[in-house]
UniProtKB/TrEMBL annotation:
Ranges where the Alcohol dehydrogenase-like N-terminal domain occurs: 39-163
Molecular functions (GO terms): alcohol dehydrogenase (NAD+) activity; zinc ion binding
Enzyme Commission no: 1.1.1.1
Descriptive protein name: alcohol dehydrogenase
Lineage, opening ranks: Bacteria, Bacillati, Actinomycetota, Actinomycetes, Pseudonocardiales
Stretches assigned to the Alcohol dehydrogenase-like C-terminal domain: 204-321
GO cellular component entries: cytoplasm
Protein origin, superkingdom: Bacteria
Family assignment from sequence similarity: Belongs to the zinc-containing alcohol dehydrogenase family.
Length: 363
């Protein structure tokens, strides 16, 4: 990784970002002098910590299309430096956002007025802009988490983070934790004693285990990796298994691995009135058989979830604030890489065993 020095400008903030130039190219740290006061409705945030998400790894490896050059990263926590003129941005709970606030923000900015937004699908907005997934605009480059600063746009869900929640716990809230909160919202109310199947015990999976266990469910976590299965126990799984074949009579099945065989197992496992929520299938794969008679007679529901609504981000932060001491969320993030060590952070994330690697852009 190479770095390019930037001259100081007293009327600007001297920021830096890691430019991704495409598959096989190293990251390059680039200076960016940005106005100290952002535009109307915007917030300039100094990033304290970002994490390397699985989708970042897929992008870097070429398994997921993404504009290049660009600024990756969409799981981060930081403090507001300044807000733009006019009415300040507001948090999901309605509180105004001001300098000094410690926040996380959603993976996307939505227009709020298109047909999809009006149908309560802001994550599928027709004018959607996604942090960490936009083509580089050198005039306004701070659009991802792998930077010292980010400009948070109007239409972005913002949630304040209590100071006692560590950065390594708060950072993944804006992708992993909020996605799981959306999954459980789609499942509907969880009754105490409900049988729940969680397929895939990576970061999303163990988060789902913890949320379901905290709601009073009896959770079976399945994953082919033994270390992941044991970690799922620490997050509240009552049972673990290498796979879901043969599992029956579950009220809620959550699929987070994306494996076709796991999707099939979730569908086969449902009890009468059960619901399967599929969130892991984010890449093309083989079709999965569906028995329509069993679905009809069993009063089953099958729901797809991709990204999340603003309320899910609030639910994610609330859960972490209440339970990060109960479950070992801090152990899911390892490392402490500088921005000019991002290539090493990505390599470490590929090796594991922690689901996330931390990048501290200001270090």
């Amino acid at each position: 990784m190479t770095a390019v020095p930037a001259p100081a400008r007293p009327d600007l903030v001297d920021a830096r970002y890691a430019r991704w130039d495409g598959v096989g190219a190293p990251f390059t740290v680039v200076p960016a002098a940005v106005p100290r006061v952002p535009g109307p409705g915007e917030a300039l945030v100094e990033i304290d910590l970002a994490t390397v998400c699985g989708s970042d790894l897929h992008t870097v490896a070429g398994h997921r299309p993404s504009p290049a050059p660009g600024v990756l990263g969409h799981e981060q926590v930081g403090r507001v430096v300044a807000v733009g003129p006019g009415a300040p941005p507001r948090c999901v709970d309605g509180a105004p956002v001001g300098p000094g606030a410690r926040i996380v923000w959603s993976v996307a900015a939505s227009c709020g007025t298109c047909p999809r937004c009006r149908r309560d699908m802001p994550q599928k907005c027709l004018e959607l802009r996604k942090y960490g997934h936009e083509p580089l605009d050198e005039a306004a480059p701070l659009t991802g988490g792998f930077a010292t600063h980010c400009v948070v746009l109007p239409g972005t869900a913002i949630v304040t983070v209590p100071d006692d929640v560590p950065d390594v716990v708060a950072g993944p809230a804006s992708c992993a934790t909020a996605t799981v909160a959306a999954v459980l919202a789609a499942a509907g109310p969880i009754e105490a004693g409900a049988r729940a199947l969680v397929s895939g015990a990576g970061m999303l999976g163990v988060t789902a285990v913890a949320m379901l266990a905290q709601a009073g469910a009896h959770v079976l976590a399945v994953d082919p990796d033994g270390a992941r299965r044991e970690q799922a126990r620490r997050f509240g799984a009552a049972e673990v298994a290498p796979g879901g074949a043969g599992v029956t009579d579950v009220d809620v099945a959550v699929e987070l691995s994306g494996a076709a065989v796991a999707v099939g197992s979730c569908l086969d496992a449902l009890a009468v009135g059960g619901v399967a929520v599929l969130a892991g299938s984010v890449s093309p794969g083989p079709a999965v058989p569906l028995d329509p008679e069993r679905l009809v007679r069993g009063l089953h529901r099958v729901v797809g979830v991709h990204n999340y609504r603003p309320a899910d981000l609030q639910a994610a932060v609330d859960f972490l604030a209440a339970h990060h001491r109960t479950y070992p969320f801090a152990e899911l993030v390892a490392g402490r890489y500088r921005l000019d060590e991002l290539d090493e952070a990505v390599a470490s994330a590929r090796r594991g065993p922690a689901p996330r690697q931390a990048v501290v852009p200001g270090a």
